[in-house]
Amino acid sequence: MRTFGIPLRYYVDSLSVFRYVKTRDSVWRRHVALTDDVDPQWKKVMRVLGVEVVYALSPQAKGKVERPYRWLQDRIVRTCAREKLSSLEEVRTVLREEVDRYNNRQVHSATGEIPSLRFKRAIEEGNSLFRPFVVPKPYSLPKDIFCLREKRVVNGYRKIELHKHEILVAGVPLREEVDVHLIPDISRGAMDIRIWWRDKLVRSLAFPLGEFPRVHF
Q1: At 15, is the pLDDT very low, low, confident or very high (cuts 50, 70, 90)?
Q2: What is the C-alpha separation between 26 and 3, in angstroms, rounded?
């Protein structure tokens, strides 16, 4: 999104990363939440950016995605078999090369144009629904958009509990709900925590990344 812009909508399947489905997902084992009552982390980001999400109910419904995916998959498998590649890193190299060729060098059979050039021309002619990436208010940093989100309630000691950590939140009334942004930083081995209340940043701190469990969408 930061490179190409923000789309009008995303057309995705019902993979658990994109959608909570009552009869399939098991986070709420007593089914207190119905389908779409719980937003996965990905969908929360889409909502902040104002991107509409549309769900395809079958693979056939989004053929424009499935056909090139199947084409790429066939090419990768055959290339790996022909060149006797077996490691993941070798296969990733093939994937990157095939995606680059598909997007930037190969003429599409349906449009008769190279996809990247077609996209560039649409942008130049104002014939695209993509809009430039801008950090929406009240946020000022992209990491407050592309982050993990949780909610917590300030207890009687003006603290919140977050994965076995007690964090002091000054200036927030008792029993108020705050938005917690978690930004993993692999290079630093840290988890940046940014706490928001009523569209204001009230606390920013960091903990060792290893003290937080793996993220479950």
Answers
A1: confident
A2: 35
* Whether 46 and 82 share a structural domain: no
SS3 at position 102 = helix
Which pTM was predicted? 0.80
Place of tokens 């706490």: 195
Which residue is associated with the tokens 């982050």?
147
The answer to whether residues 211 and 204 touch, using CB atoms and an 8 Å cutoff, is no
Torsion-angle region of 5 (φ positive above 0: left; ψ -120 to 50: alpha; else: beta): left
Count of domains in the chain?
3
Report the relative pairing of strands 9-12 and 52-55 from DSSP bridges.
Answer: parallel
Examine the pLDDT at 179 and tell me if it is beyond 80.
Answer: yes
- Which residues span the domain enclosing 190? 143-211
78's tokens: 């055959």
Token pair of 83, please?
């060149």
Q: What type of residue is 16? A: S
Classified as helix, coil or strand, 79 is helix
Q: For residue 40, is it within any domain?
A: yes
Q: Which secondary structure element, helix H or strand E, spans residue 83, and what is its range? A: helix 63-83
